[in-house]
Specification:
With 248 residues, the protein is α/β, with parallel strands linked by helices. 37% of the residues lie in helices and 24% in strands. The protein has helices at residues 46-52, 78-83, 100-110, 116-129, 145-157, 175-190, 202-208, 226-232, 236-245; strands at residues 8-17, 20-30, 35-39, 61-66, 69-70, 85-88, 163-167, 195-198, 211-216, 219-225. It has a six-stranded mixed beta sheet with strand order 6-7-8-3-9-10, with helices on both faces. Helix 3 packs across helix 4 (116-129), helix 4 (116-129) packs across helix 5 and helix 5 (145-157) packs parallel to helix 6 (175-190). The relative contact order is 0.17. The mean pLDDT is 93. This is Arginine transporter ATP-binding subunit.
Length: 248
Amino acid sequence: MSTAQPIIEIRGVDKWYGAHHVLKQCSTHVGKGEIVVVCGPSGSGKSTLIKTVNALEPFQKGDVVVAGTSLSAKSTDLPKLRSKVGMVFQHFELFPHLDLTRNLTLAQQIVLGRDAGAARTKARALLDRVGLSAHAHKYPGQLSGGQQQRVAIARALSMDPMAMLFDEPTSALDPEMVNEVLDVMVALAREGMTMMVVTHEMGFARRVAHRVVFMEDGAIVEDTPTDVFFNEAASPAAQRFLSKILAH
């Protein structure tokens, strides 16, 4: 893992929804090429935390810095920054009226300014990478959930991101479709992609994560190397979580 400045830094972030304090002095970082899994019980603030990284969720205190750029600085071009931080959501968020190729080329042309031919070449290569090149002219509704999520990953990769964020990418899938998505994510991890992943898939975490961030009630309770988290979790909350998750 690189000792250079982290790609992602979350510095003392607080967020409220009205009177509800949803993130409490959260601080962590993700280095270049590092895979960090964020886990914890439902409602602990995991998805909110990861969405602060590309400013999909505003925060009231602290700062988030991506590749040296502060999200809270008025001069920051947030759309430009988001184009360099890929985001994969729980529910795919594909354009249902566009075929898979167009789903992958649209942002390349509009945001990155790629010409149509180069964008199509990139799209085809990425669909092949996620095992879906034969479906390039299909529409999202013609695919299974696992296939749609693989397209969503390919679409994020089409923007040449410096890091990838995954917000519970398998939680909306039928169990038999989970592994086909996790296999793509494992391949990305092995290629050195910087990744921050909110997930309950502890097998994935154990297999590829460098660190695990455990949250409870809006706070980061543990931020520790993966083997330490699974074998020597210090907090009672993490121990309870692991006993429930690993029992199934």
